[in-house]
User: Fold these one by one.
Assistant:
Number 1:
Amino acid sequence: MKISAFTYVRNGNTFGYPFIESIKSLLPIVDEYIVVVGDSTDGTREAVEQIGDSKITIVDTIWDDNLRKGGKVFAQQANIGLDSASGESDWLFHLQADEVIHEKYHETIRKEMLENLEDKNIEGLL
C-alpha cells in the first residue's frame, strides 16, 4: 500500500501556521509528501527544506493574487499538490498547513486504509 500526502503553504512563518508540525505529524505514515510552497518571503521554503526528509518533494509556485477572492487560489494550489503526487498511490492524504494529526491516530489511519484498500466504493475516509 502506497500513501501520498500533500499540503500547500505560503508565508507560513508570517501567518503563524504550524506548517512544520503539520508536515511532521503525517510523515511517519506516508511514502511521499508533496509540499506546494507559494512565493514566500519569510523563509517558509527553507523551513520545509530543513526538515530533511527524503519523502518530501517541494513544488514551487507563484500565487495569482487575482484568484484570492472566493479562495480560488487555495483550490488551485491544492490541485497542484494533487497532480504532483505519484499516480501509483493507493491513498492520497490532504493535510492543510494549519492541521496536525496526533500520533495516537497513526495506527488507526493505516489500519483503516489497509482494510479498505480494495473497496472501490470508498472515495475517502473521515
Number 2:
Amino acid sequence: MKNILLLEPSYKNKYPPLGLMKIAQYHRQQNTKRNIVFAKGEKDPKLTSYKWDRIYITTLFSFEWRRTEIMIDKAIKLVNGEKSKIYVGGISASLMLEEYQAEKKWEGVNFITGILKDTPVIALGLGRNDIGGRTLGGTPIDEMTPDYSILEQIDYRYPVYDAYFGYASRGCVRKCKFCGVPKLEGDQVDMPPISQMVNDIDKLYGTKKDLVLMDNNVTAAPLFKEIIAEIRDLGFTPGSKLKRGRSIKKRRVDFNQGVDARLLSKNPVLLKELSTIAISPLRIAFDHLGTRKVYEASIRQAAEHGITALSNYMLYNFHDSPEDLYKRLVINIELNQELGIRIWSFPMRYQPVTFKQRSFIGDKWNKYILRSFQVMLQATHGVVSGNPSFFGFCFGNNVDEFMNFLALPHEFLFNREFYFSGRGRPVLDEFMSNWNALSEPKRQLLMTILSGPIEQLGIRPTLYRNVLIDKTVDFEIRNIMRFYISYYQADRTSKD
C-alpha cells in the first residue's frame, strides 16, 4: 500500500485544483488500495495521517509565492527531508521554474512544468520501480477523468463546484505579451471529446449541474462547430434544467477564460453557434480601447442572437491609463442601455506572471491610484454592474470625476455616504477646494508622495505625518496632506 498526499496552498481560489484531481485518478487506477489524501493549507490535520511515499503540490499565481513556499517547506518536513518524494507543478511552477530551482532549500524537489500531456511515466519522470513507473504507456494524466471524491476531504468550499470541469482544446493561437498561456500550454490543440469526460464523471461521481470549460480560446479551435454540437447533444441547450428530487436548477455553460472578440466580429457564425447552447455568461475580453470596434461588434451580434447575459474581463495597469479604463467601463454601461442586455465587467489588474508580489505599476498608473481603484471595487465586490446611477456613485459620472475620485483620501472612499451626502460633506468640500487649487505638476507630485518610494512595496500611510511637518515640501501640498493623515485609521486593515 502507498500513501499519497495531494496539497493545495492556503490561498482562496474559485475553482478546484483540476491537475491534482487528475493525478488522484491516475494513482487510484494504479492501485485502489492506496491512501490518497487531499489537503488545503499547511494546517490541515490530515497532513500527519500517514508516512507519505509521494507528495504532489499544485501552484497557482506567482503573487501567491509566500503561501506556496510555506506549503513546500511543510512538505519537506512531512517526508523528513526526502525531497525526491515531492512533486511540484501547476501555473507558477511552470512559468517560474528557474525561481523555484534557485531556492537551495528545495534542491532535490521535482518540479514539473507545463501540462501533463505525455504518458504518466514521461510526464512525471517516474523510474521503473517508482509508484506507477512499471506502466510505461497509458492515458496522459491531462486527459484523465478528474477525481471529484478528493474534494470531500476538505472543509474549504470552492465557489464553483457543481460542474463538469474540463477542456475542449488546449493552448492558444495568440501570443499576447501579458499572458502566460503560450509558455504554459503552447500552440492550440484539440482535446478528447467532452462527452467522454462528462459520461465518465456521471458514472463515477454523479451528474453535475453546469459545464465549465477552461479553454483559452475556444473560438479559434479548428473543431469549434463540433465542440458546440457536442455540448448541445449533452443537453446543455438554452433554458435546460437539471432535476434533483424536488429541486429544479437551471444549467449553464461557461467558457470561463473568455472568447476572442477579434474572431467573433469577423465571423458571425461563431456567435450564432454559441447562442445554441446554455452559455451564461458569455465572457469577452476588452483589454484596451484599441479593441473597441471588434468588442462592440461582438456584443451587438451576441444581442442579436439572444445572448443577454455577458461578462467581460477588463485588463488594466498594463499599457492603458486610468482614463482608458474608465471609458471602457462607460462603453459597457451605454451598451447595456442601448441593447437591453446585462454586461458585468471584471477589472483585472495586470501583474507580470513572474512577480512574487502584486507590486507592478504600469507606466500610466501609480501605487496610490491603483489602491484607490481597488477601494472602489470593494464596494462592488470586484464587479462593475451596468446600473448607471450606481456606477456614477462608485466611479464618477465622467472621466474628470473618476480621476478626482482616484486622488481622494481613501477614508472618503471607504465612507462614501458619510462624506458625499452626510455630515462629512463639509470636509469633502474643503478637500476639493484645496485639490482644485493645485496645479497639474503639484497634483502629480502629491500622487508621487502619497505612493511612497518606488522600491517600497505597498503604501505606508504612517509616513504622511513626516511630510506634513517637512517645511521643505511645498506649502499647498502640505496643506492638503492633512486630509490623508486619517487614511491610516480607515485603511489599517489593508494588506498594502
